[in-house]
Amino acid sequence: MPQTDLKPKWHSPGLVDWPLVLISLALTGIGIGLIFSATSAMGEAGRSLVLKQITWCSLALVLMALFALFDYHSLDRWAGWFYVAVIIALVAVWGLGKVTAGSRRWIELGLMRFQPSEFAKLAVIVILAKYYQNGAEKQERQLSRLIRPVLLVALPMMLVLIQPDLGTAGLIFLIAASMTAVAGLSRRALLWMGGVILSVIAILALFGDRILMGYQKKRLLTFLNPDADPLGAGYHIIQSQIAIGSGGLFGKGFLQGSQNQLMFLPVNHTDFIFSILAEEWGFVGCAIVLILFSALFLKGVAVASQARDNFGALLAFGCTATLFWHVAINVGMVMGLAPVVGVPLCFLSYGGSSLLVSFICVAILVNVSMRRFSY
Amino acid sequence: MSELPLREASLSYLRTRIRVSVAIILLAMGLLAARLWQLQLLRGESFLELSQSNRVRIVRLPPPRGKIIDSTGHVVAENNPSFTFSVVPGELKDPQRLIHTCSDILGMTPEKLRGLLERSRTIPRFMNYPLKRNMSLEEVSLLKLQVSDLKGVSLEAKPRRVYPWGETLCHVTGTLGEISAEALVKGPKLGYQAGDFVGKSGVEKEYETYLKGEEGWERIEIDARGKQLGIFSRHDPQPGSDVILTVNAEFQRYVEEVFIHRAGSVMAVDPDTGRILAMVSKPGFDLNMFSPSISERQWKSLNSDPLHPLENRSIRGLYSPASTFKIVTAAAGLAENVIDPGHKFTCKGDLELRGQVFRCWNQYGHGKVGLHRAIVESCDIYFYELGLRLGGDRMARWASLFGLGQPTGIGLPQELPGLLPTSAWKLRTYSEPWKEGETVTLAIGQGYLVSTPIQLAMMTAALANGGKLLKPTIVQKVVSHDGRVIIEHVPLVRRNMPLDPAAASFLSTAMRDVVADKRGTGRRCRVPGLNIRAKTGTSQVIRLKERTAEDDRIPYHERTHAIFVAYVDDQPKKLALVVIVEHGGGGGASAAPIARKIIARYYGVPDPGDPSD
Fold first, then answer.
1. Cβ B47–A246 below 8 Å, yes or no?
2. Which chain A residues are Cβ-neighbours of B88 within 8 angstroms?
3. Which residues are CB-neighbours of A79 under 8 A, at least 6 positions away?
4. DSSP β-ladder status, B264-269 and B276-282
5. Under CATH, what is the fold of the domain B57-74+165-219+237-245?
6. Chain A residues near residue B90 by CB distance under 8 angstroms
7. What is the pTM of this model?
8. Burial of B232 (0-12, 13-18, 19+ CB in 10 A)
9. B235 backbone φψ class: left, alpha, beta (φ>0; ψ -120 to 50)
10. Quick check: bond before A164 cis, omega within 30?
């Protein structure tokens, strides 16, 4: 690898992939509108949530601009330190974090709430990109080479899992798996992986009783059969599906979603924001948002395939995978296709950490794409 | 450049794989779109109907809180329904009619009611905005007539804690308050929500898990507007269990009335069982101030009151036992064979020790004095001498046997253990060795030694029951709402005092003469027909260079505390009693008369008044 210039280079704005930026902004804007509707029944408290989201968005934009300045190869250099920092933050959360609703996920830093598990995703992307960038040729693909990346991923995953945060841990796994599948494994190994995944599902099915925590078990069972417990765990899913389905083709209109307004859907401004979209804007609204997301993903893949080196390609791919899995799982969960795990929807869900990380992912994509011609 | 082809090769390998992911992305998005199609377009109609017509809402039913009842069945803390009249802004169609018909009944001017209705529009449209709380039953019945067909109003009954005995047993009962944020975190598992009331002090706090009960729920059908259609099912809440106290509220009230001074504590205990018969801490406060919740102004005034009415002095007041401690010193002296009952010391009014002068309260001195007279007339010099021969650590050991320096385990929150100084403790805390002067002050119950009234009460009880240090209790039983006894108190002996019967008998006689003898310091406690055994104490608050005879000249906060411990052990019901009057002056002067009244009342004899001699 030639030594690249690590000082920020001024690239002409023409090289910035504006569609990426615009799609992100459009989605965030839609999100703010949805949050406004979701929280309108909360009176004063709702207003402040909307304002907070707008603030986070502005912060994210600034961060994104900063991220675009430096050469992404410096991530290669700092990958190790970033990883260690995130691990330390995760351990700190476990130790000192503010305990909210039974799980430790936050560290309070004055006015900001800092959720390290979100940044764990980034750390995993960067560290795996760094690890896999060399030797993408088939010859070097052996399962033994995977031991180190598996450990590197398992550590933050475990720290997140014990918070407990099944959703984010699962996401980390999926992101790592995606990146590994693309860069780390031969076709034969991929088949092996498929086999392993099927076995894991089988093991959970047979022995899940003993491995999973009580409410996690409940969640999976509820996912499989929500009607079994309509007032408890199944409540969320059933209400969400009613909300979505009742939107019909064009939806009920802005602020007219009755499921939402009567507060049948708890946490509707975070994990279940897609239900608001579906109820108020119908199939048409959902289709538009899904198309925007698809465009985002495809663009991300394009950036990855046009990157000028493996590191950039893997970074871009990892970021795209992050955004993709978030959307796939969240929207699937909200529609009853996936178990209810706490995974927010990029750009749309309320939440500073989630928004920041989503924008950082886009920023990395922009960064990699900007530099695809420089040598 | 030779690198390029290699890079190209690896890149193209990656590229192909990356392109495969495009297929996966499109597949997943397609799947989601298909599901949307299914839910919204194929089944959209039925979901729409569901969302508009029947809907289920779960309403939480809070459980009725258990009662707190005294030993004779009088209720000290219970729940009354309190009515709140609210408006549902999203449903209110005819505000004019509401104002017109209800403002009188509610006791408000129409303008005020209109103002409230204006403000109600700021909250979510389908929630209740309270217009008036704590309405009386008449107001409620009048209101019901007027609003029976009015849309958009609601009348709710919520339980409210009431205290029929007002200030009596206020510290023992304790107060309720809204659950704090920290406690709420563990809440969902225990069935608490924001806004729930939990015990904050006293029995209400200590027995919270029993008093609380179990919440129930109701599954209500409501329509698209939030209007209740019917009740699907109901799971009744389980009322909390009742807590039965060992205290007789009437006796407690009498004790509170008889204690006429500004501040202090009275503890009466049954020496055979450890059951508390009265626990008074003055000043107190009216528990009903806290119901439904205390106003900011009242809270501030309670907290800034220099006499701290919210503190339960019986378990948190720290006082030097002063001369009441001489019993312990005497017991130690006899048991360790340092002295025998006949041994005499000479009291000249003062004692010099390495340049420091220690005085006796009688500046002229008692002359040659033996143990009996030393106790009866509370000679300090005798005990200085005895203390020096025992040494600080031996006295501390005996004090500890009597329960000083350790919490009694009464089972009320925030009991303080007091302080029992030893040479090891002093080295640890001040990095200084124990001084002989400190032995001397310890012997008469001053110096670093501090104890709580309840510790003194249990110490006295041990004297009354022949040497058993018991664990006190304020709760006799906890009974579930369906009559099952969940907890029942059983007397627990913490420790047996190694006091031989001859020594015990000697002390007992001496303490009887404290009251009976015409020079006994406790003579104001005499009740004909009863053998009251007691010891007075006058606890110094600050070091005085000279003893001033006139207490009134000394500012309140510098006056000594008056302490009196007493017991009766030859009646069918025994009694152990401690009276502490803060800044009350002399123990015999201020505390003894109060003890007399209490003892007379307990044994059902009339109070003879002060003795004429």
1. yes
2. none
3. A126, A127, A129, A130
4. antiparallel
5. Penicillin-binding protein 2a (Domain 2) (3.90.1310)
6. none
7. 0.61
8. middle
9. beta
10. yes
Residue A213 lies in a domain: yes
pLDDT above 80 for B29: yes
B241: tokens are 């269990």
* One-letter-per-residue 3-state SS of B541-601: CCCCCCCCCCHHHCCHHHCCEEEEEEEECCCCCCEEEEEEECCCCCHHHHHHHHHHHHHHH
The set of residues, in sequence order, having a beta carbon less than 8 Å from that of B168 and lying 6+ positions away, is B76, B249, B252, B253, B256
Task: Look at residue B398 in the predicted model and tell me its pLDDT.
Answer: 94
**Angstrom distance (rounded) from CA A12 to CA A17:** 11
Domain ranges in chain B with CATH number 3.90.1310.10: 57-74+165-219+237-245, 82-159
Strands (E), B7-90: 55-61, 68-69, 75-87
Q: How many domains is chain A built from?
A: 1
Q: Which residue has the tokens 């048409």?
A: A284
First to last CA, chain A: 10
Give, for B62, the enclosing helix (H) or strand (E). none
Mutual orientation of helices A116-132 and A166-179 as an angle, nearest 10°?
Answer: 10
Residue of B nearest to A99 (CA): B185
Burial B434-467 (b: 16+ CB within 10 A, else e): beeebbbbbbbbbbbbbbbbbbbbbbbbbbbbeb
Calculate the CA B92 to chain-centre distance: 46
Query: Which pLDDT score is estimated for B552?
Result: 58
Tokens of A164: 């407990």
Residue of B457, B577, B459, B596 lying closest to B520 (CA atoms): B596
Please state whether beta strands B242-245 and B68-69 pair in parallel, antiparallel, or not at all (unpaired): parallel
Pull the structure tokens for residue B312: 């339960």
Q: Is residue A346 part of a domain?
A: yes
User: Would the CB atoms of B51 and A282 count as touching at under 8 Å?
Assistant: no
Fold of B249-283+315-602: Beta-lactamase (3.40.710)
Q: Are B65 and B159 a contacting pair, CB within 8 Å?
A: yes
Q: What does A47-76 look like in DSSP terms, one character per residue? A: HHHHHHHHHHHHHHHHHHHHHHHS-THHHH
Cα separation, B153 vs B137, whole angstroms: 18
Find the domain containing A200 and state its range.
13-370
CA distance A121 to A106: 15
Out of A99, A263, A298, the one facing B185 most closely (by C-beta) is A99
Location of each CATH 3.40.710.10 domain in chain B: 249-283+315-602
pLDDT reported for residue B258: 94
Nearest Cβ partner for B51 among A246, A324, A332: A246
The string of DSSP letters for B222-269 reads E-TT--EEEEEEEEPPBPPPEEEESS-HHHHHHHHHH--SSSEEEEEE
**According to the CATH classification, is domain B82-159 in 3.90.226.10?**
no
How far does the CA of residue B55 sit from the closest CA of chain A (Å)? 9
Domain assignment present for A331: yes
Report, as an integer, the average pLDDT of B55-82.
86
How close are the terminal C-alpha atoms of chain B, in Å?
Answer: 122
CB burial of B137-146 (b: ≥16 within 10 Å; e: otherwise) equals eebbebbeeb
User: Half-sphere exposure (CA, 13 Å, Cβ side) for A275?
Assistant: 31
Closest chain B C-alpha to A91 CA, distance in angstroms: 21
Domain assignment of residue A193, yes or no: yes
Query: Among the listed ranges A280-294, B24-38, B57-71, B434-448, which one has the minimum average pLDDT value?
Result: B57-71
Segment among A71-80, B256-265, B453-462, B508-517 with least mean pLDDT: A71-80
Q: What is the ipTM of this complex?
A: 0.82
Q: Do A328 and B28 touch (CB under 8 A)?
A: yes
Choice between A87 and B204, residue whose per-residue pLDDT is larger: B204
